[in-house]
Amino acid sequence: MTQPTDWYLWGIVDFGLTELQESVRRETLTIATSFGLDYWREHDREAAYPWEFVRAYAAAGWLGVVIPEQYGGAGLGLIEAGLLLHAVGRSGAGTSGASAIHFYIFPITPIVRHGSEYLKQTYLPKAAHRTAKRRAAARWAHPVLRTAGSEGVHYQEDRQAGAGSRRFQRSVH
């Protein structure tokens, strides 16, 4: 006898991608693969933020993927955003590319899901049409010094940590 928990026997779960999701995967992978491994090696070596990469996604309208259409976004969901980031990672960009795109897609999600109408009307159109140059990303991209923690504790980036990695050394002053 089949139990109600034997959902896999019912055949009701389809893990295949829809035509739209296949299109998202294909189009975002095309953008991501246009930036070869040499591009990522150079950016990792120089500790440079991948502005050209982010601008390519911005120009194609992908940074507003989770923002509803009524606010100027694509109106797609988190599955499509996940497919976009999977394509980025699969392309060879790894977390250097995925993080750069992630900073533009997911931080706005709480406003999309839970924000008041005022917040949505004020911020979502700006986020959907933003350029790739934002202060938050620029702050994290700065390669010299970041400070955090309690007074007198500083974290400085260790550029000898290796390509593509960020290791911060703690020093107390």
Q: Mean pLDDT, rounded to whole units?
A: 77
The CATH class of the largest domain is Mainly Alpha
Tally of contiguous helical segments: 8
In quaternary terms, these chains amount to single chain
- Output the helix-strand order: HHHHHHHHEEE
The CATH architecture term of the largest domain is Orthogonal Bundle
- How many domains would you count in the coordinates? 2
Largest sheet: 3 strands, antiparallel
- According to CATH, the fold-level topology of the largest domain is Butyryl-Coa Dehydrogenase, subunit A, domain 1
What does this molecule look like?
- The chain is 53% helix and 8% strand.
- With 173 residues, the chain is mainly alpha-helical.
- The chain folds into two domains: 17-141, Orthogonal Bundle (Butyryl-Coa Dehydrogenase, subunit A, domain 1), CATH 1.10.540; 143-173, no CATH class.
- Helix 2 (19-33) packs parallel to helix 5 (78-105).
- The termini are far apart.
- Mean pLDDT is 77; it is low at 131-173.
